[in-house]
Specification:
The complex is a heterodimer of chains A (about 400) and B (about 300). With about 400 residues, chain A is mainly alpha-helical. Chain A contains 16 helices and 8 strands. Chain A has 2 domains: about 5-40 and about 365-395, no CATH class; about 45-340 and about 345-360, Cytochrome-c3 Hydrogenase, chain B (Orthogonal Bundle), CATH 1.10.645.10. Chain A has a 3-stranded antiparallel beta sheet. A 3-stranded antiparallel beta sheet of chain A has the order 6-7-8. In chain A, strand 6 (about 295-300) and strand 7 (about 305-315) form a beta hairpin. In chain A, helix 4 runs antiparallel to helix 14, helix 5 packs antiparallel against helix 6 and helix 6 (about 165-190) packs antiparallel against helix 11 (about 250-280). The radius of gyration of chain A is 22 Å and the shape is flat. Chain B has helices at about 1-10, 15-35, 45-55, 65-90, 100-125, 125-155, 165-175, 180-200, 210, 220-245, 255-275, 285-305. In chain B, helix 2 (about 15-35) packs across helix 10 and helix 4 packs antiparallel against helix 5 (about 100-125). The longest helix of chain B has about 30 residues, at about 125-155. The chains are: A mainly alpha (about 400), B mainly alpha (about 300). The interface between A and B is medium-sized, with 33 and 31 residues.
Chain lengths: ~400, ~300
């Protein structure tokens, strides 16, 4: 019988920028079991959302994640527009899709860079992030912000994309294509990268279905799941594009899917720009007076997979209940399948391969007593605590 | 005695090797930065790093483990690197002629830093450090044979001379060893051994930052870590100097030849820097296979070629 060593990844670890804790139970270098704990990053956004007006919630959900900061407003807009039962104008759809796809490009470039960094290949890291810079400049030109674009509103978008900006956008996209070619060539043809990523962290088709994984993680295992195709929204049914899949399910396949998706995104943006020229003169936002009672579900394909927002409305000016599910929430669970049995060196890149985003994921924190392992505060106790405190304050004041 | 101490502590030992190594480390970082579209550090950055660690930062001892060995290991590593440096640089600068068999002594002394790291990291009692130490051990086992084969090849090329001085003088009388097929093969194997000895990518798995957070050095801080930095500076000068002595007919310190000497060292460091910037980190299993199979094969082929006179 061998004693297993615990190798912690987290709470603060150079592998991930965000706080999280993965406990790898290792036998020598081989990972035998894995446990993960999150909850370091909980901000109570769903609760906060109930105290904001619908217009304010857009800014709030944009701040759930800094990288995919448009997919949350996207899904929220879809959800609320479902309650109202309106469809935005074509022009607004095109602008929404352009922002969504630009975000996908910058997020995938960011991942390629980080994956290089995790493999110790800092040159790829720096190059990918340099190539990402023009995309952020483009965002600044279109929306005024490099991140958190504040582009979405109920019934449309906040800013128009002028005719005069289109040649410049096209120019940057052309530059991006050559740079992506260069990067893809450097990454995809390097034999040492093949040795590090092929056959590592394999998720089979069945694993994907079992864990209900989404996004590039699922598509790299041959599951063609993509909200943009399955439940079309915005301008995606209006343009011509295809879902990228790969069969292998390893880290290399995930990188391949992401790199090829960037080309698709560029093609979608180009078609949307043509659509913008066609829909010249349309309103970019509808006037929405009130939101009826009801429930709406909105989905959007974030760079990491499906973002799901469910909004209950009681007819007032703020959501009665707002439920968010981010893609990393399901994708992180696949680590158990991809990491166990691998070495530590492989486990880290397998962890990074699904592009986990903890600030998207964290919805609840549970405290356990360190000695007895008993759960300290359950929902009932928390409510009791809250009621007691409120009454204490009341008594003090009266 | 006094002259020996001077050799060890001032020139060509500790102070000289460390200062030269620090400048080479700056060069390495600057080239890396330029390759990665960054600006890079100022010239004196390695000195700032070292003195900040030595004088300003607090040395924190791990709660578990053995503090004595933990603190002594970096000192051992500095001494090992400096001793190796003295034995390599004395014949190289033509100060003394060394002694018969010093190539093998140098070989052993060059392993002392790695072993000190292993001992120190195991004494820290950190699980991540122990993973790093086990990786370093596997790495040493795999590359040392190759390194020994390279030295054996050089000895054969030099006509069974076991000392560095005659290796250099034979090259200076004839052609440098790198000017033949077997020499090139040995040089390739030697450069990869250097890469592994210096712990640079692709062989930095013992301190892999994104996997095991600097592995062996995770618990080191303050002046103890400054000693490790010092060792790294010294090794970054001593090992390329060794390769220059073995393959590129050493230095000649007169007139324009001094520039040549500096150029040779810089070319070797540049080669190491470019390798580390164009490769991802390999796994320890792949590294062992790389040395045990491919590099040993190359070295053996080179030795066979030498036996046939190529």
């Amino acid at each position: 019988m061998s004693k297993k060593t615990l190798i912690p990844i987290g709470p603060y670890h150079p592998l991930q920028e965000e706080p999280e804790l993965f406990k790898l139970y290792c036998d020598g270098e081989i990972v035998r079991d894995i446990k993960w704990e999150t909850g370091y990053n909980h901000r109570g956004i769903e609760k906060l959302s109930e105290s904001k007006t619908y217009d304010q919630v857009f800014f709030l959900v944009e701040r759930i994640c800094g990288i995919c900061s448009t997919s949350h407003p996207f899904a929220f807009a879809n959800a609320v527009e479902e309650i109202i039962g309106v469809e935005v104008t074509d022009r607004a759809k095109y602008i929404r899709s352009i922002i969504g796809e630009l975000e996908r490009i910058h997020s995938h470039l960011l991942w390629v860079g980080l994956a290089g960094h995790f493999l110790g290949y800092n040159t790829v890291f720096m190059w990918a992030w340099k190539y990402r810079e023009p995309v952020l400049d483009l965002f600044e030109m279109i929306t005024g912000n490099r991140n958190s674009y504040a582009m979405f509103r109920l019934g449309g978008v906040r800013r128009d994309i002028d005719e005069s900006k289109i040649p410049e956008i096209q120019n940057i996209l052309d530059g991006l294509k050559t740079k992506t070619d260069l990067l893809a060539g450097a990454v995809m043809d390097d034999p040492v990268i093949h040795a590090r990523t092929k056959g590592v962290g394999i998720l089979t088709k069945q694993d994907i279905l079992d864990y209900a994984a989404v996004g590039p993680t699922a598509r790299a295992s041959g599951v063609a799941i993509d909200v943009r195709k399955d439940d079309p929204y915005a301008a995606y049914p209006l343009v011509n594009w295809k879902v990228i899949t790969a069969e292998a399910g390893d880290v290399f396949a995930k990188a391949e899917v992401r790199l090829l998706e960037m080309y698709e995104s560029v093609s979608i943006i180009e078609q949307c720009l043509k659509g913008l020229q066609k829909s010249e003169g349309q309103d970019i936002a509808l006037k929405i007076k009130e939101i009826p009672e009801g429930m709406g579900m909105g989905r959007a394909e974030a760079p990491r997979g499906e973002v799901f927002h469910c909004v209950f409305s009681d007819g007032s000016n703020s959501p009665a209940r707002h439920k968010i599910r981010a893609p990393s929430y399901v994708n992180i669970a696949t680590f158990r399948k991809s990491c166990v049995g691998q070495t530590i060196a492989d486990a880290t890149i397998s962890l990074a391969a699904v592009d986990p985003c903890y600030c998207c994921t964290e919805r609840m924190a549970v405290a356990y007593d360190a000695n007895s392992g008993k759960r300290l505060m359950n929902a009932r106790e928390l409510i009791e605590l809250s009621v007691r405190k409120t009454s204490e304050i009341k008594n003090k004041l009266i | 005695m006094a002259i020996d101490l001077f050799y060890f502590f001032v020139f060509p030992g500790l102070i000289f090797a460390a200062i030269t190594g620090a400048f080479l480390s700056w060069f390495d970082r600057k080239i890396t930065a330029r390759v990665q579209f960054r600006k890079g550090p100022p010239l004196l950055q390695p000195f700032y790093d070292f003195f900040k660690l030595l004088l300003v930062k607090e040395t924190i001892l791990p709660k578990k483990g053995s503090p004595m060995i933990f603190l002594l290991a970096p000192v051992f590593s500095v001494f090992g690197a400096t001793m190796a440096g003295v034995f390599i640089l004395l014949p190289l600068f033509n100060i003394t002629t060394g002694f018969r068999g010093d190539l093998l002594v140098i070989f052993y002394l060059l392993t002392i830093p790695s072993f000190s790291y292993i001992i120190g990291s195991l004494a820290s009692g950190n699980p991540l450090a122990s993973v790093g130490a086990s990786r370093e051990m596997k790495l040493i086992i795999s590359y040392e044979l190759t390194f020994l084969l390279v030295i054996a090849g050089i000895i054969m090329k030099a006509g069974q001379q076991f000392d560095l001085n005659s290796v250099i003088s034979i090259q200076q009388a004839g052609t440098p060893f790198i000017g033949s097929i077997s020499g090139v093969l040995l040089f390739i194997a030697g450069i990869f051994c250097l890469q592994a000895k210096l712990g640079l990518v692709p062989f930095d798995m013992a301190e892999a930052e994104t996997e095991i957070t600097e592995g062996m050095f995770i618990e080191y801080s303050g002046s103890a870590f400054a000693m490790i930095k010092l060792t790294k500076y010294i090794m970054l000068f001593v090992l390329p100097a060794f390769i220059v002595a073995l393959f590129m007919n050493g230095f000649r310190l007169e007139g324009i030849s001094i520039l040549w000497a500096i150029l040779k060292i810089i070319v070797v460091v540049l080669l190491l820097t470019l390798i580390r910037n164009t490769n991802p980190r390999v796994k320890i299993k792949q590294a062992v296979k790389f040395f045990a199979l491919w590099m040993n094969l190359i070295a053996v082929i080179a030795i066979v070629l030498i036996a046939f006179g190529y």
